[in-house]
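__Record contents__

***
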Amino acid sequence: MRIVYFDCFSGISGDMALAALVDAGADQAYIERELQKIRIEPFGLSWKRVNKNGISALKMDVVLDPNKQPTRHRHYSDIVKLIRTSGFNERVQAYSLAIFEKIGIAEGKIHGIPVEKVHFHEVGAIDSIVDVIGVALALDSLQAEYICSSPVPLGSGMVRCDHGLYPVPAPATLEMMRGLPIAETDYSMEMTTPTGAGIVAAVVNGFSKGLPPMVVDTIGYGAGTRDLAKQPNVLRVVVGTTDSYIAKSTAMLQPALAHLHSHDHDHDHHHDHDHDHHHDHDHHHDHDHHHDHHHDHNHDHDHHDHNHDHDHEHDDDDESHDHPHKH
């Protein structure tokens, strides 16, 4: 059985998850090609290798045309329609819809509105859509059958947003992590974003404090934005195989794919893709997904604005994020 393990010792965000999955062997060409099916404003992906406290990791950012900044908001129902009409296979749709459903329900509960009325600030919505669908495509590429995670550190402290000072973890993040194991952290910062929490809540079968029984095939590291004083700000993804009875017996419980677990992977993968999405990528990572992209990217990531602009600035220490949903 194919197993994917999220080692969230420094938390998890959408961009970190996508980068780590690609670094662990998900087909980058397939992901980039499929992402171009999304009917949203033009975007690119920036990939580059960075060093985080001695660990070489892949950094991914979504790049938008600064001259074509969108202005309107996109509602949860709009995002659902986008996913359903973009031509993705059933498995990718199931992952993507499940993650956004977790986020939408949590945000709706926090704000006291129906999930259909939850809206995302347009810039943040594009980031979120690309991150979430990118992760879905990566899991599809890896043919993940059992997905496991470590307990997840959420962070602490306060963060400044449009409504004033908000506690960390963000209310929606904490809501999505109800019933799931949380790890303690010493950092006064946002370590897990709403997108990261949505990924964990929607796709993870089970949790393990250490690596579960498995034969390790590949390992990937996805970098966050900030540098931490005491540890690498990376998400580690471990991909392998397992004969674990627990994994086999709970694979059907994977929230996003309960109705799809026939293991009939409808992967339209061609690992020799020769494509050119004209992404000005700033991309120099050293693994089997070489796309010499050159992006100058300063776009904020995982930035959900559900009825409020998360222009968060942490008031604590220099470990704080310069972005609410990007660490």
User: Anything to note?
Assistant: Residues 261-324 have pLDDT under 50 and may be disordered. The chain is about 30% helix and 20% strand. The two ends are 32 Å apart (CA to CA).
